[in-house]
């Protein structure tokens, strides 16, 4: 029996050694294939003190509330294509929204939104809508910094919210966002334009049925023509949600501690 126990001990010890060796081999192999330290997968940069702003990063999909409040968000603009139409509709119904803007679009089309953003909020959606989850830490930060500066120049206020293109997250994205003290905002409900071709009323009805207290809705004010289904039905969506007792707020109002929802009529 003692011999049997010794044999088992050797197997366990040998297994641990083999496991440690396998782990080290995996690390060395992966390190050659992918720059782990400072690469897309890593949420740390180098071995020194991490320069990450406040030292924390909040990632949100929706607001934690039982109040009937909802935040409309629009990605990828601004552009002459549909951004003015969205702003006109929101102004007509006195609805605030959050626009996650692309830095290159801001530089190219600032005049489309200049002096039209009162009551709205602007967050960053990257510099050129690249997949930031594929970039290393330095590239991701450079991308976000350029967009940050462009938005600050447009609005007079540095953005505090960031939404990554495609909703893709990598360690380098998190590190870059933390350096800029962003709140990282995803969404809990997306407009589904392709499901309702040429049926803006049907699309609006579907969205109203799925909204819950604290929902962050993802829409777009730039893109393919099928997205017009959602934008043309925006008035129906707003009226439908109001008929269910919903109030519209910006994302920061939705997420702010102790911040009461802004009345929009």
Characterization of the model:
It is a single chain. The chain is of the alpha/beta class. It has a single domain, classed as Glycoside hydrolase/deacetylase (TIM Barrel, Alpha-Beta Barrel), CATH 3.20.20.370. The chain has helices at 2-33, 83-92, 103-113, 137-155, 171-179, 200-210, 228-232, 234-243, 251-255; strands spanning 58-60, 69-75, 98-101, 121-124, 161-162, 183-185, 189-190, 215-220, 247-248. The strands form 2 sheets. Strands 2, 3, 4, 7, 8 and 9 form a 6-stranded parallel sheet that branches. It has a 3-stranded parallel sheet with strand order 1-6-5, with helices on one face. Helix 4 packs across helix 5 (171-179) and helix 6 runs parallel beside helix 8. One of its GO terms (molecular function) is hydrolase activity, acting on carbon-nitrogen (but not peptide) bonds. This is Polysaccharide deacetylase family protein. Pfam families: Polysacc_deac_1. Residues 68-249 form the NodB homology domain.
Share of residues in strands = 5-15%
Major sheet attributes: 6 strands, parallel
CATH C-level class:
Alpha Beta
Pairing-aware structural class of the strands and helices? alpha/beta
Number of helical stretches of at least 4 residues: 9
Question: Quick recap of the structure?
Answer:
This protein is an alpha/beta fold and 265 residues long.
């Amino acid at each position: 029996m003692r011999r049997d126990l010794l044999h088992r001990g050797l197997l366990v010890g040998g297994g641990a050694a083999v496991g440690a060796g396998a782990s080290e081999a995996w690390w060395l192999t992966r390190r050659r294939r992918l720059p782990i330290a400072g690469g897309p997968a890593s949420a740390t940069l180098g071995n020194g003190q991490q320069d990450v702003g406040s030292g924390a990063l909040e990632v949100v999909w929706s607001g934690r509330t039982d109040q009937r409040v909802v935040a409309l968000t629009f990605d990828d603009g601004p552009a002459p294509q549909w951004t003015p139409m969205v702003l006109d509709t929101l102004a007509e119904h006195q609805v605030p929204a959050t626009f996650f803007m692309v830095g290159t679009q801001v530089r190219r089309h600032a005049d489309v939104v200049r002096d039209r953003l009162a009551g709205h909020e602007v967050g960053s959606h990257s510099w050129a809508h690249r997949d930031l989850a594929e970039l290393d830490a330095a590239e991701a930060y450079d991308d976000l910094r350029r967009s940050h500066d462009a938005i600050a120049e447009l609005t007079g206020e540095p953005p505090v919210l960031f939404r990554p293109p495609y909703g893709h997250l990598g360690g380098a994205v998190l590190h870059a966002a933390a350096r800029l003290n962003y709140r990282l905002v995803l969404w809990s409900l997306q407009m589904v334009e392709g499901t309702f071709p040429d049926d803006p009323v049907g699309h609006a009805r579907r969205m109203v049925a799925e909204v819950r207290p604290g929902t962050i809705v993802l829409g777009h004010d730039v893109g393919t023509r099928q997205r017009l289904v959602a934008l043309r039905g925006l008035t129906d969506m707003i009226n439908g949600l109001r008929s269910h007792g919903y109030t519209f707020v910006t994302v920061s109002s939705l997420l702010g501690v102790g911040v009461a929802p802004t009345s929009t009529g």
